[in-house]
Amino acid sequence: MAYGSPGDTAPLDASSDTAMALAAGIMSAEFSKEPQEYFRRMRAEAPVVKIGTMVVLARWDVINQAFRNPAVFSSNKDAVDLGNVRPLIPLQIDPPQHKNYRKLLDPLFAPRVMAELEADVAKLANELIDTFIANGSCDFNTDFAVPLPCTVFMRLLGLPSQDLALFLRFKDGIIRPGGHDASLDLDAQTRIRTEIAQEMYAYFEKILDQREIERRDDLLSKLLDAEINEDGDRVRLTRDQILDICFLLLIAGLDTVTDSLDCFYAYLAQHPEHREQIVADPAIIPSAIEELLRWESPVPGVARIAVADTELAGCPIHTGDKISVLVGAANTDETLFPDGYTVDLLRNPNPHVAFGGGVHRCLGSHLARLELRVAMREWHRRIPSYSLAPDTDLEYTPALRQIEYLPLVWS
Ligand code: HEM
Fold this sequence. Notes:
The protein has about 400 residues and is α+β, with helices and mostly antiparallel strands. It has helices at about 15-25, 30-35, 35-45, 60-70, 95-105, 110-115, 120-130, 140-145, 145-155, 165-175, 185-215, 220-225, 240-255, 255-270, 270-280, 285-295, 325-330, 365-380; strands at about 1-5, 50, 55, 75, 135-140, 225-230, 235, 300-305, 310, 315, 320-325, 385-390, 405-410.
C-alpha cells in the first residue's frame, strides 16, 4: 500500500501499483544505475510504501522522523543480517548504550587524527597512479578505487599488507555474497555470510593475540587499551566487543569509499564541464565532494526495524516491520534542496544525509572525506582530462553503488 497523500491521512490507492513497483525495485541494478529518477518518481507517487512487512521511506520529513527516533526505528541486529553472531558495534547497539561506544570511538576517528594520514594517503594514491598513467587507460575500480581505501584501512588497523586479497574476499563475501550470481537465494547468501564471518572472527582473533603480547602504533592496539563507561565504571573492552567493532569497520569503511570514488569518477568522466571546474580550481574539491556525495548517494539507503507500533505519513507500522530509509531520496528532496536536480559543485550550505542522520551518523566520515579529497586532488593534478572508454555501458551493483568495471581513458 502507498502512503503520503496531502494531509497524510489515507492510503494512496490510485497510484499504489506504480508506487509498489518502484519500491520493490530498490534492490535492482536498474535502480542503482540511475536512482535519482527513481527517487523523484517515488516521492511523487508515494513517499511511504508498505509491501508486506517492508516499508520504504522516500521523503525527507519521514526519513528525518525515522532518524530522530531510534527508540522506535532501531538499527539492531534484526534490521539486517550480515552473518555476524553478535550485534555489530556501534551500529547495532541502541541508545543509551550506543553513546558509550561513540564516546570511545569518535576520538579515534576525529578530523585531527585522520589528518595525520594525509601524506600517507597522497603517497599511496600517487603510487597507484604510477602503475597505469603511462598506459593512457585503467579500470578505475580495480586499479584505484578498490586498493586505495582498503590499503589505507589496513594500515590504520595495523594489518599486514600481504593480507589485502584475503581482506577483500571478506568484505565482498559479506556485502555481495552472490557475487555476480543474481539468482543466489537468501539461504545460500546467509550461508556464505556466516562462513565468511567465522573466518573474519578467527582472523582478527589471531592478530589481536599478537597485539596482546606486543602493542603497536595502530588502531587495534588502541582498542585493546581503550576504556568504556559501563554502569559508571571505566572498564576495558572485552575481546568480543573489539571483534564486533572490527567486523563493522571492515563492512562500513572500505566498500563505501570505493563506491563513492566509482560514482564520482563515472559522473565526472561523463560531465566534462564539472571535471574542468575541478581542474581549474582544485580549492573547490571539498565542496565538490559534498555535492557528489549528495547527488550520487553511494549508500542510497540504510536499514531499520520497528521495535514498537507507530505510523509515518498515515502508514501504520508494526513491531518487526523492516524499514528501508532511502537517504538518497532525502538528498534530492525538493523541500530540502529546491534545486536538487542541479549538480552545483559550489553548493553551500549542503545539508545532505549521505553519511546518515541521527545517533548512527557515520563514524568514519572524516576518514572518508580525507581519502576522497586526497584522491581527487592527486588524480586531477596528474590526469586532468579523462573520459569513459568508448561504448562503455556502466553497471552499478545493487544496494551499495559500486561499478565493478569502470574503464577510463586519457591521452
Ligand atoms: C564515503 C564513504 C562513506 C559513506 C557514504 C558512509 C555512509 C554511512 C551511513 C549512511 C551510515 C549510517 C548507517 C545507518 O544509519 O544505518 C554510516 C555509519 C557508519 N559508518 Fe560510514 N560511510 C562511509 C565511510 C565510512 C568509513 C571510512 C568508516 C570507517 C572507518 C565508516 C564507519 C561507519 C560506522 C562505524 C558507522 C556506524 C555508526 C554508528 O552506528 O554509530 N564509514 N556510514
